[in-house]
C-alpha cells in the first residue's frame, strides 16, 4: 500500500519523494503520513539483522515510492565506514538504564543518523520527479544539524547548502566544526540572534513566493535539511526499532516486553520518531520528554498550554535551547484527530500571539508522554555522579535526559527497562562536561580538555575532533536576522 503524505495545515497531499524534495509544505505546514504504517516483520526476525537491514525493513514502510534498489542504495551509502562502530548505534548499560549512543557518525551527534542518508534520499527524489534545478539546502541550526548537514551535502553534485547558526549560541567545538567545513557548495553564516530567530528567518525565506520564482529562473529550488523534512524523521524511527531488537537479542528483555524511552529534546523530532515507532507496533510504554531550562515542552505536557513568550536561556545543552519546537506540530495535528483546520488555527495563534492552548480532549491524547526538565546544576551533578560511580562519561544533553529519568522514577516508582537516547558525544561539549566532573578543568584550553577527557574516560578522541584541531576557518560571515535573505541571494549570485 502506498503511503502518501499530507500537510498538517491543508489537504495538500504528495508522495514520499515529493515530501522529501519540498521539505516544507507550500502552506507552511509539515508533511505527515496520511496513515502511519505498521512494522511488517517480527522483532524476532529483526534481532538477527544488521543496522542497515533494519533500516530497510522500517523505511520501506514509509517511503513506498522508492524501489528496493533505490532505498537500499541510499542506506548502503549512508551507514558505512563514516560510523566508527559496526553497530552504527550501540547500546551501553550504565546507571540502571541503556544508553543508545547515537553519536558515532562523522560529526559525533545524533543528527548524523538521519543526515547521512538525507542527501541520497534527496538526490534520488529529484531524479524520480525529473527535477532539473539544483537543490539549495537552507537550514538553521542550534549546533548539531548544521555540521551534520554540511558533512552530508559537501560536494554532492547539483546541491548547495546554506547554514545559519546563532553566533555565540553554540559550543566552541560545534562552531569550529561548522566554520572549517570544506566543500565548494557550502556556506556557513553566524547571525546576531538566537536559534528561534534563525529558524523563523529560514521559514520566511522558504515562504517567499517572489524569491521562489527568481530562484527557479536561475535554476535553483530550496529544500530543507532541518528536522521538519520527513526525510530526516523517517530514518530516526529506525534506531528505536534496532535498539529494541538488540535488547531482545542480548536477553535483556523478552519479546513483547514494554520499554520506556527518554529523549532530550528541543525541536521534538527525535522523540516524535520514537512515538512513530510505538505507533508502528514497537512495544514502547512511556515516552519521556526531557527539557533543559528552556522548558516550554515540559510546560506544554503539564498544562496543555504552549507559550513561547518567555526568556530565552542559553544553557550548556545548546542544541535544546529552543522555544519553538517545530516538530511538535506533527503531534498536535495527530492529537487534534488529524484535523488540519484545528492545527492551523493553533499554529496561527502561536505565530501571532506566541501561545496556544489545546483542548481537554487533545490533552487526554498525550497519555503516552511524560515531560520534565533538568536545571543546569542538576545536569552537571548527574554527569559527575554517573562518571564517579560507573566511569561512563555523558554529554550535557544526555545529562538532561538522565536527570529527567531519575525524576520520573522517583515520581512513579516505574521499574520498566528504559532506553536513554544519548544524542551527542561528550567530546562535543568538553568544557561543560569536564567542568561538571571537576571545576579545576576550566583552566585548560579547548583541545587540552579533549585530551584530558580521552584520558579520564578511557575513550579514543573521535576523528571529527582530530580533523578540526588545526583546521583553517573557511566561513566567517556574520549577519543580522534581517539580512538573511540577501546573504542567500549573494551566495547564489541571483
Strand arrangement, major sheet: 4-5-15-10-11-14
Q: Name the CATH architecture of the domain at 91-107 and 232-459.
A: 3-Layer(aba) Sandwich
General form: globular
The mean pLDDT is: 95
Radius of gyration: 21 Å
Task: Identify the CATH class of the domain at 91-107 and 232-459.
Answer: Alpha Beta
Overall helicity: 40-55%
Major sheet characteristics: 6 strands, mixed
Any idea of the CATH topology of the domain at 91-107 and 232-459? Answer: Rossmann fold
The residue ranges in which pLDDT falls below 50 over 5 or more consecutive positions are none
| Number of strand elements | 16
Query: Structural class per helix/strand content?
Result: alpha/beta
Protein described:
There is one protein chain. This protein is of the alpha/beta class. It has a domain at 91-107 and 232-459: Rossmann fold. It is 45% helix and 15% strand. It has 22 helices and 16 strands. It has helices at 16-22, 43-46, 51-62, 68-78, 111-115, 118-128, 144-153, 172-179, 195-206, 209-217, 230-249, 269-280, 296-303, 328-335, 340-353, 360-364, 376-390, 396-412, 430-437, 446-457, 463-466, 484-492, and strands spanning 5-7, 13-14, 31-33, 91-94, 97-101, 134-140, 159-166, 186-191, 220-223, 259-264, 284-291, 305-307, 355-357, 369-373, 418-422, 477-479. A 6-stranded mixed beta sheet has the order 4-5-15-10-11-14, sandwiched between helices. It has a 5-stranded parallel beta sheet with strand order 9-6-7-8-16, with helices on both faces. A 3-stranded antiparallel beta sheet has the order 2-1-3. The termini are far apart. The model has no long low-confidence stretch (mean pLDDT 95).
